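Q: Trace C-alpha cell order:
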Amino acid sequence: MTVRTLWLLTLLVLSGVSYCPAIAQFGNRLVYLDEFADPYYVGLDTARLITPQWVGDEDVRTVIVLSIDDLRDPERFEAFLRPVLERLKEIDGRAPVSCMGNQLDVQHPLLRQWIAEGLSIEPHTYHHPCPLLQKDDFQRAKSTYDLCVDQMFKLPGPGPVAFRMPCCDSMNSISPRFFAEIFNKTTPQGNFLQIDSSVFQLFTPDDSSLSSDILSVRAGRSRFDKYVPRDRGFVNYVENYPYPYVIGRLCWELPSTIPDDWQGHNLQQPHHPATIADMKAAIDATVSKQGIYVLTFHAGQWIRNDQVIELIDHAIDRYGDQVTFLNFREVYQRLTENLLGGQTLRASCGGDHGVRVLDVNHNGFMDVVIGNENVRQTRIWSPESGRWTVVDFPASIVALDSQGGRRDCGVRFGVLQPSGYASVLVRNEQASGLWHFDGKGWIEDPHGLKGLELDGPIYTSIEGKDTGVRMRDLDGDGICELIVGGPQQQAVFRWAGDDGWIRLPFSLPAGTSIVDDRGRDAGLRFVDIDVDGHADVVFSNADRYSLHRFTSMLDGWGQTIRQGTRPDSDGIPMIVRADGTNNGAWFAFHHMWVQNEETGARFTPSQTESRSYQALLEGP
C-alpha cells in the first residue's frame, strides 16, 4: 500500500476537506480544455501565450492589430484610412489593417486595391444586428452571420479568417451560444472562420507587474476600468490576459483592448485626447506583458485618423522593432506556422483537428499538443532559449471514421503529479492508456487504467461519443480526481499511483450528468458558487434544474441547495435547451449570465439574464 493510499484512507476516515488555493489552482489549470464553450475562462492565473512564441521574429515582443468596424461604404473608408495606410507603409511598405465589413459589393475596385496593399476584409454580419441573438429568432441570427461570411469568401485572395460581433464594445452581444451553435459550425456553403475578436480585455491593478503609472488608480478606479460601461451591465471582457486563447477547441480569440473609441466617446467625448493617452498606456501595458494589442475603432465618429496615426507613432517611437503591425490573416498565419507547427485548429471541413493549447510542463507558458490523422507531437516552449522543442504525443485526439468524418477519441488532460506536469488519459475502442509528462516526454504508466471499472471498463469515448469522463481536483490537494459523469455510468475515483484508481464513496448528484446519451452537453457546470474553494454542481436543462454544494470527500456534493422542474420562473436558467443546443449561459464575476435570442429580445441595457451566486444559494 502506497503512502498516498494511506493518506486517502485517513482522509476518508476524518471526512474533512482541506484546501490550499495555490495548489488547487494548478490542480485545475487544465479543466478549460473540456469546457463546451466558455469565452471568459482566461485570467491572470492562466498560462501565457506571449508574442515571441508565435510571431516568428525574435526581435518582436508585441503585435498590434488595427481593426476598423462597420465597413459598408468603401469610398468613405478610403478617405478616412488613407493617411493611416500611408503612415503604415512608411514602416515596412505594408498597410496591415483589418476592416470588419457588412453588406459589400465584393467587386468594388477599392477592396481589391486594399487587399493588395496589405489590408484584410473580414465579416461583421450582413445586417449589423445589435445584439445578434435577439427577437426569439435564432435562424435570423445565423443567417446574417452566414451571409456575411459567404460574401467575404467571394473576395480575391485566400478569404477571411476573423469575425467581430456588432456592438460588442457597448453591450453583451457575445454569448457561449454564438460560439457553440454559429461560429464553430460551417455556413451553408461550407465556409468557416478561424478567429474571433469580440471579447474585450481589461488591465486591472490585480496584475502587480504593471506599473502604477500605467494603471493610474484614482477614486477607486484604474485608468482602464473607468471605460467599462457598467451602467449597461457590461461584462463582455476578461481581465489581465492580453494574449490569444482558444474557445471551444475551434476558435482563436484575439481580445480587443479596453478602451476602444466608442468606450472613450461614452465616457467623455468623441476624439478626446484623454482617451488617446489611455490607449497609449494600454499599448505600454501590452508591450510589458509581451501580448497582442487589438484596437477596435470606427471611421471618424469617435476617433480621428490623425489620432490613429498618433498611436502608431507612439508604438514605433517608443518601442521600434519590438512592435510589429499585422492584420488578422497575418496573425492567423503566424499562429499556425510558428505556434502550431503548420497545423490548424480547424480541419479542412471545419471540424476538430486535434490541436490543444495547454501548459504541459507547468512553467506558466502555453505549449501545444497535436493528435490527428497526420501528426502526433508535443511542442514545448522554452522561455529561456525562446525556442520550441518537439517530442512525440502518445495518442490520437481525433480520428477519421469509416466515412471520413471526424470523431473525438476521448483524450482527457489533468494533473496527477506533484510537479504539476500534465497527464493524459484515454480509453476507446482502439487505444487506451495513461501517460505522464516527465519534463522531456510522455511516459506510459503501467497502472494507469487499474481500477477504472464499473460493470466493465470505463471508456472516455465510445464510437466518437463523449462519455462524460473528466479530471478535476475536488479536494484542493493539487491532484485531480476522475469523475465519470455519463447518464449510465457515474462514479468518482482518486489517483493512488501504483495502486491505480480507487473509487470514492460518492458520485455526481442524482439526476445530473455531464453528457447526455448522445455524448452532448447535458447542462452540468462545476462552479464554486459558495466561494469556499471547492467546485459545486450546477445542473440545468429543459426539464429540470438543481444546485448541489460540495461538502466533503465522503459525501461529495452532499447538500442540495435547490432543485425543481420546468416550467418555473424562479428556477436556474437553462444551460442547455431541449434540442441539446447551448443556451448561452456562463459564470463570471460571481454571477450566472445568460445571453441568447430571448434575453436579446427584451431590449434591457445588458441584453442578459443574470443571477448572483448569492441569489442562487438563497433560492426564490
Notes: The chain has a mean pLDDT of 94.
